[in-house]
Design goal:
The protein is α/β, with parallel strands linked by helices and about 400 residues long. It is built from 15 helices and 14 strands. It has helices at about 5-15, 50-60, 65-70, 80-90, 105-110, 125-140, 150-165, 180-190, 210-215, 240-245, 255-270, 275-285, 310-320, 340-350, 380-395; strands at about 25-30, 35-40, 70-75, 95-100, 115-120, 140, 170-175, 195-205, 250-255, 295-300, 325-335, 350-360, 370-375, 395-400. Strands 1-2-10-7-8-9 form a six-stranded mixed β-sheet, with helices on both faces. Strand 3 (about 70-75), helix 4 (about 80-90) and strand 4 form a beta-alpha-beta unit. Helix 8 runs parallel beside helix 10 (about 240-245). The longest helix has 17 residues, at about 150-165. The model has no long low-confidence stretch (mean pLDDT about 95).
């Protein structure tokens, strides 16, 4: 596999002027109080993701014979849309293999850009194998989502834009799935400004690149499971693995709860919609996973193609993670006025009750007792602690609470 030259990134930038937005950096934001957080909003691209850059540039460089055969790609959803748009724009047939569990919004958007969609049971890696089979059967030209120098060059244009728009940037935080995005961004930044730190972020449930770098060999995870479907990749690329080892300073992981909290923070504080994969860089900074104290940091929001039906569940999890939503179960006597006493304490302390379930059950510690399940809105985790202490001080017995 050929090595990448910085001149390729600048050639890609010229080609992409006809289709990709030069997204403007936003900030400083109030997403963290220990560093200055800026955002590079690639979720504002036409297809809702940075993937348009690499896919379009790769397709633009195909020979006429390759274009005539049509293109095939595999994707968790965002690369699919980039390939579909790029192929249609160039008058080329496109076939996209998507994991069967891909968000419906991404499937429909891919079809909307003119591609033929093939849904494959499993995750990205299963879609990849099917795409290779179809390539060999039908003679299509394969457009890899990350392990291709031209695709990486297209993604690298983001790094050039960050350097031009934010000349005093000290650290850049980038999501990692297969590694194409961070390879391009880190290559461009380290080639032009080696003093700037570049950090990668993966989901706890899909840490393939992190484990590969730690063991110094490419590995394939047995399974991946995360709400960040766009970076749910079992095995990193061969080229991207080598580039990450060379150009990336460190890789950390974030939990699904931390991702959900970041999605919620971007919605509330920045009025910005991010998908799970798009929010992991912000999640890492909000969760203090990186040594960024006092630094000017640019977080790459890589995509915003989140299914609206799924968004509601993510918001609920984000509210719980940030201490804004809690469920408390109390064991109390089943006597007149017991419920009103609990409600009064919560009201005095500023909690907003959303639902109450009164359960007469033999699992109560009292013969004439009951379990009271209360779901309420709170300000933060300290507020939850104050309400729990207030209830305990009044003699109420809390048997469970769920705010994480």
């Amino acid at each position: 596999m050929q090595e990448l030259d910085i001149s390729e990134v600048f050639r890609a930038r010229e080609v992409l002027k006809e289709v990709a937005n030069e997204t403007r950096i936003i900030g400083p934001t109030k997403l963290a109080d220990y560093c200055q957080v800026y955002l590079k909003p690639e979720n504002l691209q036409l297809t809702g993701s940075f993937k348009l850059r690499g896919a379009y540039y790769k397709i633009s460089q195909l020979s006429e014979e390759e274009k005539a055969r049509g293109v095939i790609a595999c994707s968790a959803g965002n690369h699919a849309q980039g390939v579909a748009l790029g192929a249609t724009h160039n008058g080329i047939k496109s076939v996209i293999c998507l994991p069967a569990g891909a968000p419906l919004s991404k499937v429909e958007a891919t079809k909307g850009y003119g591609a033929e969609v093939c849904l494959v049971p499993g995750v990205y890696d299963d879609a990849y194998r099917r795409a290779i089979e179809l390539r060999d059967e039908k003679g299509y030209t394969f457009v890899h989502p990350f392990d291709d120098p031209l695709v990486i060059a297209g993604q690298g244009t983001i790094g050039v834009e960050i350097l031009e728009q934010m000349k005093d940037v000290e650290a850049v935080v980038v999501p990692i799935g297969g590694g194409g995005l961070i390879s391009g961004v880190a290559f461009a930044i380290k080639t032009l400004r080696p003093d700037i730190k570049v950090y990668g972020v993966q989901a706890d449930g899909a840490p393939s690149m992190k484990k590969a770098v730690e063991s110094n060999e490419r590995i394939c995870l047995d399974k991946v499971c995360t709400i960040a479907d766009g970076i749910s990749v079992k095995e990193p690329g061969a080229l991207t693995f080598e580039m990450v080892k060379q150009y990336v300073d460190d890789i950390v992981t974030v939990s699904d709860n931390e991702i959900a909290a970041a999605i919620l923070a971007l919605l509330e504080k920045q009025k910005m919609v991010a998908e799970g994969a798009g929010a992991v860089a912000v999640a890492a900074v909000m969760s203090h996973k990186l040594p960024l104290e006092g630094k000017k940091v640019c977080c790459l929001v890589s995509g915003g193609n989140i299914d609206v039906n799924f968004l509601n569940r993510v918001i609920t999890r984000g509210l719980a993670e940030s201490g804004r939503l809690v469920s408390i179960t109390l064991d109390l006597p089943d006597t007149p006025g017991a419920l009103s006493g609990v409600v009064n304490v919560i009201a005095e302390l500023g909690g907003n009750i959303l639902s109450v379930t009164h359960e007469r059950t033999t699992t109560s510690t009292q013969v004439n007792g009951c379990l009271l399940h209360i779901e309420m809105e709170t300000r933060n985790k300290d507020h939850i602690g104050a309400i729990k202490n207030g209830l305990t001080d009044r003699g109420y017995h809390i048997v469970a609470d769920y705010n994480r």
